[in-house]
Amino acid sequence: MRIRVIPFATLYQVDYSILRVVPFYHRWHDGNTFTTPEGGRPNSGLMYFSACETDYSVRGVPPFSAACGDISYVPQTADYACRFRNCTLNKQRCNEYLINFELFDEFGQPFALAEQVKIIRPRDHIWYARRFEEVLQLFHHSSAPKGQIKALVYSILTDLSLEQRKEHLSAGKYAQIAPGLLYLEKHFRENPAVPDLAELCHISESSFRRLFRAYTGLAPQDYAARLRISKARLLLESGAMSVAEAAEAVGYQDSSYFSRVFKLKTGILPKDVLKNGV
Fold it and tell me: What is the reported pTM?
């Protein structure tokens, strides 16, 4: 079965839902192998290799490996086999974390982040190790809200997406706007002025606006608004904040105005997200 692919590097721009999150940990030994069952996986997964290395065999591509500290994304359509080596145990007495989940776009259609296994070498693998451990601990804590677990997985995927996008951006024809774009993504709560972003890039405001829209499909102000609303929805889904608190956390001082913008961008009111966890 083929499903739509949204590349990792653009995921952070997409409105999507995460369903059926189920984390595991494994204790692999040198020489252990795993092969996808006939018909493929029932879901997608992220694997963090905390204390082992893995050799992958994927039909139609040369063999490749994942090192300790790497993250492997495996779509539900993947057909692969892997063999584990240099296996030790970390302080949690395991050597691989796995988070299974399903992704759906804003229209309720499933999608994947790659057609086959994708290896990611994060800049700060310790940060990701802690997030994977936290997802597992919350999952096994009966009182933990499901929204909080989804919010953690969302943060992992968003950070991986931004890392992939930074690599893509710095190597592409839009490298000129990278300083301004990355600053905006880090300081979106402050809603930085476009002239200041252009100055960071050492180009004119008109050139920055033109290149920014060509790269993101949005004006800088609209892009910042999308980031703010996406972050607010994440906070509301986690159950950690009220509507007013979430509004303030993403830079809106007026919660009524925040609710109007949220409804315009998402089609629902923030109070409904808080009530239903949608």
Answer: 0.70
